[in-house]
Amino acid sequence: MTIRPPQRLLEGYRRFKKERYPSEAERFAKLARGQAPATMVIACADSRVDPATIFSAAPGELFVVRNVAALVPPYQENAGYHGTSAALEFAVTGLQVTDVVVLGHGLCGGIAAALADAQNRPVGRFIKPWVDLLSPMRDAVIADDALATPEERQEALELLGVKQSLANLATFPFVQSAIDAETLKLHGAWFSIANAELHWLNDLGEDFERQGV
Ligand SMILES: [Zn+2]
Known about the structure:
This protein is of the alpha/beta class and 213 residues long.
């Protein structure tokens, strides 16, 4: 059998090994002895929203889990295949990260799917039940007369999705005990793709504000 990885990936790896790796070889050698990231980021799988790029993070600095729409499911006993929950458990109880960031974003296809599903448009066998996690917020957004255009409803649900995921994070007992012990903080953020603006959920958990520029 011939192994034929995509040419663009081979070239990308070659460039990494030749250009970036030599200056970071020491870092990688140290990381081989163990990782100790202080931050977990829960982000969307969207190719345009790469947490390491947005936060200028080096290998070893961010523990990242990405899924459709950057959602955190609520805590469930015997939940089965709970990839995001498993990563969360390891980050909080194993790595003892000090911060968890839920990073939503503009033009999110997962959020669009949640809205499309409300109109009975097909969104995919696995996507449908996943984005159903947002159905109470989605229905509230659709019922809100102040949100007049599809774009307004989309962005409103993107922001509400971050808040819902933060609320769901707090339903995990190990997350709540770390918060109570003041060893863990939860944060919400939303990234606008077109102009690379980053908005953070304020301390009251109500509004998103531009920060860091
Ligand atoms: Zn997305």
